[in-house]
Amino acid sequence: MSSRMDEEERIRMSHAGLLARSAEGHAAKGMRIKDQEDMWVEIQHHTFKNWVNVQLRDTGLRVENLSEDFHDGVALVTLVEVLQKRRLRKVKRVLNQHQALENVSTALKAIADDGIKLVNIGAAMSTSLAR
Fold first, then answer.
1. In terms of Cα–Cα distance, which of 22, 18, 44, 23 is closest to 31?
2. Which domain range does residue 2 map to?
3. What is the pTM of this model?
4. If you count Cβ atoms within 10 Å of the first and of the last residue's Cβ in the chain, which end, N or C, has fewer?
5. pLDDT digits over 63-74, tens only?
6. How many domains is the chain partitioned into structurally?
7. Which residues of 54-65 are buried (b: 16+ CB within 10 A; e: fewer)?
8. What residues have CB less than 8 Å from 52, skipping those under 6 apart?
């Protein structure tokens, strides 16, 4: 049953991907229907999750749910380590929200130290860590 569901999801996403492109080929341009926008976001989410898993392939980590699997910051720090090809200090066995926030801060600082401008990173992220 799982393979049938995977096939149905792939077909649905492929169809939505075609709908999400304008005549010029720009994703999501000209999308007028809310369901199509939601589908485009779902496709982006799925694509990003797959990209993350390719990056994490040799680390033993796998992301199934972005919200849950990045929650403690371990996967995020590991992803940044892989991308930057260097080790970062991280709490591997997170016991509380302070350690999770420390991991996320470590990853974001490493990204900022590379000269990458971080935007839209703020209280909303801190709130999600507090759960």
1. 22
2. 1-69
3. 0.67
4. N
5. 999 999 999 999
6. 2
7. ebbeeeebebee
8. 63, 66, 75, 79
